Amino acid sequence: MNRAFSRKKDKTWMHTPEALSKQYIPYNAKFLGSTEVEQPKGTEVVRDAVRKLKFARHIKKSEGQKIPKVELQISIYGVKILEPKTKEVQHNCQLHRISFCADDKTDKRIFTFICKDSESNKHLCYVFDSEKCAEEITLTIGQAFDLAYRKFLESGGKDVETRKQIAGLQKRIQDLEIENMELKNKVQDLENQLRIAQVSTSPAESVTLKSPSTDIFDMIPFSPVSHQSLIPTRNGTQPPPVPSRSTEIKRDLFGAEPFDPFNCGAGDFPPDIQSKLDEMQEGFKMGLTLEGTVFCLDPLDSRC
Questions:
Q1: Which residues lie closer than 8 Å to 295 by C-beta, 6 or more apart?
Q2: What is the CA radius of gyration of the chain?
Q3: Helix axes 271-286, 134-154, angle to 10 degrees
Q4: Whether the predicted model's global pTM rises above the 0.85 cut
Q5: 67-107, pLDDT tens digit by residue?
Q6: Cα separation of 182 and 175, whole Å?
Q7: What is the DSSP code (8-state) at residue 156?
Q8: CA separation (Å) from 277 to 43, 49, 273, 283?
Q9: If we measure between CA atoms, which residue out of 41, 301, 1, 304 comes closest to residue 149?
């Protein structure tokens, strides 16, 4: 996985794995808002977003509006943004959708992260004022991301590529089965034409219908004393043809039922869950970049 912890390499994580796996770590912050960005990563990307949201907040503050307070709940299941009193979830950012997280190395209050929206698939930059604990929150998100990725691998995510390959092989088997069925129908047609030709060239009184031989795909030896050969003809006409076996279970070249990678056992997943696993794999593969940068570039940005 392309995880880029561009700093913090010499630092340990802030919390125990159990604290982030079995519960969550709460933080209080002021929410400056979110805005759409063009790229999933980049210092310049978040810097422009912070400047934009700070400017908008300055205008609202001059109009008497206060910056809303929120509670952040960070765990291996994501970053939830809640209303502190009612605990109503305003945003739920899953970790595999978070691609960039940064805090201001000069202003310890400001931190931000970029998350891909689950409905619009747009990249949104969320900006917070965290009362001088921005670095700790950034590290906590990084630790939660690391633990979530490990849990993803342990719970079957490492088999996603294998399942894709199996699905490809299954498609090939299905194509071969269709081709096999077409060949069987052609052989059956040829056998029927041969029997009709034999009947038309033989005297009517001496015509006896022989049992149709099975084709090479059924692997059953031809027997001239089969039950079908004992059925007499009536008025010089042959008995009705053998019913087709279209109602039987479709089988492959070896007589076995086709293998379905999504229905072969409890450890496999239906297509909707499989698509979710693919999405999570792509998100974790992109990785989370943790970075410290400078957001306050002029006096206007010095305070919120």
A1: 46, 47, 50, 51, 104, 106, 107, 110, 112, 301
A2: 34
A3: 130
A4: no
A5: 999 999 999 999 999 999 999 999 999 999 999 999 988 77
A6: 11
A7: T
A8: 29, 30, 6, 10
A9: 1
